[in-house]
Amino acid sequence: MIQGPDLPTWAAVIVGLLLLTGATTTLIGTLGLLQLKSFYERVHAPTLGTTLGAALILAASMVSFSVLQSRPVIHEILIGVFVTLTTPVTLMLLARAAIYRDRSEGASRVPTDGPRRTPPA
Fold it and tell me: Where would you find the membrane-spanning parts of this chain (predicted)?
């Protein structure tokens, strides 16, 4: 059986709150994924929930290991940078692929590019 680390009470409370808040934020993003109807509506909720939820969970990890090792542990910052950079890029690639597919198939409910501008004469 694995025993938990001996964190001071103040650190255990901070780590616990950060973990619960991060898990709750991720859960809310997941529920948003289930509630929204179309693909184009669904792509936003999970990306926001994952990014913020992962940041809070990584902060809890940083606090926990910094207290246990009596020195700042910042390896999690690199993980946070990768999550923060790759999640929006993946979102954009998936959305563009879906728009391309829907436009080539002639689907009726495809987002527009925005208002059309006429070139100045």
Answer: 12-34, 46-65, 77-99
Residue 20 makes CB contacts below 8 A (sequence gap 6+) with none
**Sign (positive/negative) of CA torsion 81, 84, 87, 91?**
negative
Query: CB neighbours of 43 closer than 8 A, spacing ≥ 6?
Result: 91, 94, 95
Q: Residue 112: left (phi > 0), alpha (psi -120 to 50), or beta?
A: beta
This prediction has a pTM of 0.71
Q: What is the pLDDT of residues 38-61, one digit of tens each?
A: 777 777 767 777 788 888 999 999
Q: Give the helix/strand (H/E) hosting 77.
A: helix 75-105
Report domain extents, the chain: 11-105
H/E element, 31: helix 9-35
